[in-house]
C-alpha cells in the first residue's frame, strides 16, 4: 500500500534550556495507513510524546524548536502550516488524548463546555445541536446518564470517566487520526482494559487510524498492528506487532520484552533489567546511543550511529550487530 494517511520524514526537535540544548527528537520517520493502529513504545524521555506534539505543532516555542522535517497529511505539510490553518486540523481531523486524565481537562469549565466548543468551532453546529451531539459522544464512550453528566465538572468524574471524556472530546469531529498519548498510565488495570477495548471498538466503528503511545508493552500487544520502538530520540526498530514480540532484533527491544512479566513461565526468576541509564541528550549522538548499555556492542557501535535497515517483511532495525549470531551485519 503506497497511499499513506500520514508520512513523517526526518523530524528533528530540540529544546534550548539554560543548561544547554536538548536533542529530543533526532530524525524520526514513519508512515501511518488509513485505519491502522500504530504503537509507539519506549521508556520515559525517549521522544515519543515530543514527536507527536511536534507533528501537531504543540511544542512550546521557546524553548522548543522544530529544526527540520515534514509531516504530510492529506497532501499538506503540517510542520510548515501556518498556525491559523493547523488550528483547524487539530481536533477536527487529528484528535489527541493527552497523557494525564486528571489534569488534561480544564477544571473550571463544565464537561458540556469542553465538548461543545470543538463542535461549534469546527463543525459550525448551533449550541443546541452541539449539546445533543455531546450527550451522544459521552454515551458512545460508555458514560451512563450522559445528558445529565454534561453539567458536571472534571472533579466530579472518576479517573476512568475523565479519560473517557477526553476520548469523547478527541472524537467529537470524527477525526481521521486519533493520537493517544499514554492514555491508560494513571488508571488501574481493569479501567486500562476498558479504555483499550473502547478505542478498538471506536476504531472499528469510525474507521479512524490510531497512534497509541505507551511504555507498557503488554497494553501495546493488545491493540497495535505495527510497533515502532524509540530510544534517545531515534526509532531503533519497527515491525508488525507479532513479529516484534516473536523476533526482536535490537538489543534494547529484547531488553524491554524480557522485563515484562510472563504468565507462561513455569520457573520463577527475577525480571530482566537493562543496565545503565539512558543518555543525557545535551549532544546529538554520533555513535549508537544504546552502546554503553548493550551486551552486543562492537567497535563500530562506538564510532557510528546505525540507520534503520530492512531485516524482514516490514521489519527494520538500527543495529550494527545481528543479535542472533553476535556478528556484525
In a few lines, what is going on in this structure?
The protein has 329 residues and is α/β, with parallel strands linked by helices. It is 29% helix and 25% strand.
Q: Could you characterize the architecture of this molecule?
A:
With 329 residues, the chain is an alpha/beta fold. Helix content is 29%, strand content 25%. Strands 6-7-8-3-9-10-12-11 form an eight-stranded mixed beta sheet, sandwiched between helices. Strands 2-1-4-5 form a four-stranded antiparallel beta sheet, with helices on one face. A two-stranded antiparallel sheet has the order 13-14. Helix 4 crosses helix 6 and helix 6 (159-170) runs parallel beside helix 7 (189-206).
Number of helices: 10
Contiguous runs where pLDDT drops below 50 for at least 5 residues? none
Q: Span from first to last CA?
A: 28 Å
Mean pLDDT: 88
The order of strands across the largest sheet is 6-7-8-3-9-10-12-11
Radius of gyration: 21 Å
Beta strand count: 14
List strands and helices in order, with pairings.
Elements: E1 6-17, E2 20-32, E3 37-41, H1 48-55, E4 64-73, E5 76-77, H2 83-86, E6 94-97, H3 111-123, H4 127-140, H5 146-149, H6 159-170, E7 177-181, H7 189-206, E8 209-214, H8 217-223, E9 226-231, E10 234-240, H9 241-246, H10 251-258, E11 309-312, E12 315-317, E13 321-322, E14 327-328
Parallel strand pairs: 3-8, 3-9, 6-7, 7-8
Antiparallel strand pairs: 1-2, 1-4, 4-5, 9-10, 10-12, 11-12, 13-14
Helix pairs in contact: 3-4, 4-6, 6-7
